[in-house]
Amino acid sequence: MPIVPVSDDTEVAISIRVSFQDVVNDNTQFDFTITGAAADITGSRFAASNGGGAATSTAGDDNRIEVTASLLTFTSQPSNTVVNTGMGDVIVRAFDALGNRDFDFAGDISITSSGALVGTPVVVTAASGSATFSGLTQHCCKRSYIDCSFDWIDVCYFISF
Question: In degrees rounded to 5, what are phi and psi of residue 132?
Answer without folding.
Answer: -110, 125
